[in-house]
Amino acid sequence: SQEEALTPQDLEALGAALQGQIATTEERLEDIERRSKASASVIAEATAAVLFLQGAWGFKEKDGERMLRQVLDGNGNPMRLPNGTLSLSLDGTGPVAERQYTGTGFLVGEGSLLVTNRHIGLPWEFDANIKMILAQGLEPVMTRFIGYLPGQAEPVTVELVAASDSADVALLRLTENGDNRPGLKLATSPPGPGDEIIVMGYPTGLRSMLAQAGNRFVEELRATGDTSFWNVSQTLANAGRILPLASRGIVGGISSETIAYDAETTHGGSGGPVLDINGEVVAVNAAILPEYGGSNLGVPVDKVRQLLDGERVN
Question: I want to staple 244 with a disulfide (CB 3.0 to 4.6 A). Which of 15, 50, 213, 266 is the partner?
Answer without folding.
Answer: 50
